[in-house]
Each structure stands twice: as structure tokens, then as C-alpha cells.
Amino acid sequence: DEHFGIVPLEAMAAQKPVIACNSGGPLETIKHSATGFLCEPTPQQFSSAMAALMRNPEMSVEMGKQARDHVTQMFSTKSFGQRLNQYVVELHEKV
């Protein structure tokens, strides 16, 4: 189990839907059936997800767009900076 993997985020930033195990870091970064697929760690689950994307290229493109939007909104430098600033302001107000 990878706690927070950068590879799924890189793929999503490149507008690619991600297929990953439904445990660890992917649970925090992938929205099942929206930005990719979260699967049980079995060949059957992974091959089923791959087949779904191959059978439906339009779905793959749409999921890729949603993946890019999700990464930009949640994990971009700008988004990170805004959240960090918010935490610092809240911390300062408590002191």
C-alpha cells in the first residue's frame, strides 16, 4: 500500500483516467468511476476496468478531463498554497 502516490496524480494531470487498487493513497486521489477506477487487487478487476475504457473511448476522454480538473482543483501548487495560507491564518488567530 502506497500512502500517497504521485504517479496517479501525474497521469490525471495528463488527462488520463487511472486504474488503481482501492486501498492506500489512491483512495485519497481517485474518484471511482469519475477520474478512474478503484479495483480489488485481482487481475479480473483490473482487466475489467481496462476493457471498459477500451470499449468506450468517449468515457475514457471524459474521465481524463475530470481527472485533470480534479488534480488542478485539489493538488495544484496554487491550491496547495491557498490551503496552506488558510491553515496559517487560522493558526495565527488561535495564538
From TrEMBL:
<dbReference type="InterPro" id="IPR001296">
    <property type="entry name" value="Glyco_trans_1"/>
</dbReference>
<dbReference type="Pfam" id="PF00534">
    <property type="entry name" value="Glycos_transf_1"/>
</dbReference>
<keyword id="KW-0328">Glycosyltransferase</keyword>
<keyword id="KW-0808">Transferase</keyword>
<dbReference type="GO" id="GO:0012505">
    <property type="term" value="C:endomembrane system"/>
</dbReference>
<dbReference type="GO" id="GO:0004378">
    <property type="term" value="F:GDP-Man:Man(1)GlcNAc(2)-PP-Dol alpha-1,3-mannosyltransferase activity"/>
</dbReference>
<feature type="domain" description="Glycosyl transferase family 1">
    <location>
        <begin position="2"/>
        <end position="69"/>
    </location>
</feature>
<protein>
    <recommendedName>
        <fullName>Glycosyl transferase family 1 domain-containing protein</fullName>
    </recommendedName>
</protein>
<dbReference type="InterPro" id="IPR027054">
    <property type="entry name" value="ALG2"/>
</dbReference>
